[in-house]
Amino acid sequence: MLVIAAESLLKFVYVAGAISVALYGLNALWLTLELWRRPRPAYTPPPVQNEWPRVTVQLPIYNERHVVTRLVNAVAALDYPHNKLQIQLLDDSDDDTRALADDVAAAWRARGVNISVVRRPERTGYKAGALAYAMDDATGEFIAIFDADFLPTPDFLRRVLPSFLAAGSGDVAFVQARWDHVNRNYSPLTRCQALALDGHFGVEQPARSAAGYAFGFNGSAGVWRRAAIEDPAVGGWSADTLCEDLDLAYRAQLAGWRGAFVDQVAAPAEVPPQLIAFKRQQARWAKGSVQTLRKLGGRVWRSPWSLTKRIAALAHLGNYLIHPMLLLLLLVTVPIVWLNVPVPAPLAALSFTSLGPPLLYAFAQRRLHADAWLPNFLALPLLMLFGMGLALGNSIAVWHGLRSTGGSFARTPKFHVQASADEWRQSSYRLPISRETLLEALLALYAGAGVVGAVYWGNLWAAAFLSLFALGFTLMFGIEVWQSRGPAMQPSPATGTRSTAPPRPATQQRARQGAPAQRPEANERGIGD
Question: At what angle do helices 307-317 and 275-302 cross, to 10 degrees?
């Protein structure tokens, strides 16, 4: 009797997990078809404006010695009327980044750029707190935000702001641009991250936007209408989730505002070269998005939005729930195959949904990188293994997100890695391995035992499925241990750079020491003055 009950429980959990994973694939198919049937808008040059609005650019940073100068140089070179542009460097750092920030800001102020360094007495509320704190001194009607790893092109603002200024756009709360990647080809890991982000920015975001569904602000490379942030019905920045950007975007849309996505405008950024840093970033997004689901899921369901829009919104907010479902499937599939428990045959009909993610990534590459889509897409098998390997860390993050609000904002370190010769392992920002790495090794062995059992019983489908987990967790463990080799070096107190890092070209060395790049001549004149 006990054996029958155990088998029934295993089958029930397996079916629930399989259906959940199938829904994830179905959502990917749905979004891909939504965008496929809509032609991509042709690029149109930004219109000439007689009078450009005032814009404040906010740059929230925390301990970014390797990239703070690069960031400020890129933003100070924005081709926008200098008398309408304010730059706020929101520096919460407690290391030598503070001196670097002061130096590069002073250098640009000497050239006539309106830039200030904003520091708070306490780092309360992390990024959300910094953005809210700086609003009192912000002068712009629109607030542009760039994280430390971004390098916006000079024409970014002139190409994004028309989405706010066109006729009938008075209810646009935010405009999100696409992210591009300066170090896509640095390593297999960065190629996988670029492929995944291209899927999000090449299909998911434009599909939701074009279909009129709610979608999220991605926290960087976007612009907010100040009136939307300060709308009492919206409530401004809040730190009770770790995805303050997603939270604010959904509260704005629930209050009657709308977002706009412009995939014709891309802002280059650096993706993490360290696997543990990538995992930390993913865990923060997983925890924050689930916290937002807890916070706003009920409001979304009770909203006057159409049923389709509500379902799309909940699927979006619950996107990271796929990881605990995958981990659950792993945990129950191993005893199922060893006990040779039969599972319902109709589940095989759900296998077509597994085509969703590959089609989404392929379609994104065709839209964004038509000349290089196939080489980029060939990173998919490795991305699938990384996706399986992320199941543990993201499941832990989801669990914490379901149980708590807020939490510690664990930053993703940036290393100024662009060219293949750039080194990062000597940086003191490099993250150490943790107990989670050992758990990944144990899960690799657990999945491997399931593969053996599946082969023994002739269950080749289960053997293939469990092999993905075994390889994925082995890959995570191996790369984390390999990347942890060698001691991390302390920064040079004089410059804040890595004391033993190989020399960089003169232009990059000058940028790291705070010397400003050349500001475009058009910006000296003040376009649209």
Answer: 150
The pLDDT of residue 196 is 97
Strands 85-91 and 222-225: unpaired
- Residue pair 128/62 in contact by the 8 Å Cβ criterion: no
> Half-sphere exposure of 125 toward its Cβ, with a 13 Å CA cutoff?
17
How far apart (Å, rounded) are the C-alpha atoms in residues 392 and 283?
A: 10
User: Which residue among 92, 149, 180, 263 is the active-site one?
Assistant: 92
Question: Which DSSP string do the residues of 381-399 spell out, in sequence order?
Answer: HHHHHHHHHTHHHHHHHHH
- In the predicted model, is pLDDT for residue 347 greater than 80? no
**Please, are residues 263 and 201 in contact by the beta-carbon 8 Å criterion?**
yes
Output phi, psi for 124, to 5 deg.
-80, 130
Rounded Cα gap, residues 67 and 505, in angstroms:
15
- SS3 sequence of 253-297: HHCCCEEEEEEEEEEEECCCCCHHHHHHHHHHHHHHHHHHHHHHH
CA angle 295, 300, 306 (to 5 degrees): 170
Alpha carbon distance 273, 424 (integer Å): 8
The answer to whether the CB of 131 falls within 8 A of the CB of 118 is: no
- Whether 92 is catalytic is yes
8 A C-beta contact, residue 85 and residue 55: yes
- Per DSSP bridges, beta strands 55-61 and 85-91 are parallel
Of 195, 223, 183, 257, which is closest to residue 75 (Cα–Cα)?
Answer: 223
List the structure tokens of 382: 């490795």
- Residue pair 174/252 in contact (Cβ under 8 Å)? The answer is yes
Its pTM stands at: 0.90
Phi-psi sector, 492: left (phi>0), alpha (psi -120 to 50), beta: beta
Q: Edge-to-edge strands of the sheet including 85-91?
A: 115-118, 85-91, 55-61, 142-145, 222-225, 172-181, 258-269
287-291 average pLDDT score: 97
- What does DSSP say about strands 222-225 and 172-181: parallel, antiparallel, or unpaired? antiparallel
Tell me if 386 sits within 8 A of 477, measured CB to CB. Answer: no
The catalytic residue among 103, 245, 263, 422 is 245
Q: Is 95 a catalytic residue?
A: no
Report residue 27 as tokens: 């959502």
pLDDT tier, 354 (very low <50, low <70, confident <90, very high otherwise): confident
CB burial of residue 8 (10 Å; 0-12, 13-18, 19+):
exposed
What pLDDT, on a 0 to 100 scale, did the predictor assign at position 348? 60
User: Among 32, 77, 14, which Cα is nearest to 364's?
Assistant: 32
**290-318: b (≥16 Cβ within 10 Å) or e:** bbbbbbbbeebeeeebeeebbbbbbbbbb
d(C-alpha 529, C-alpha 28), whole Å: 46
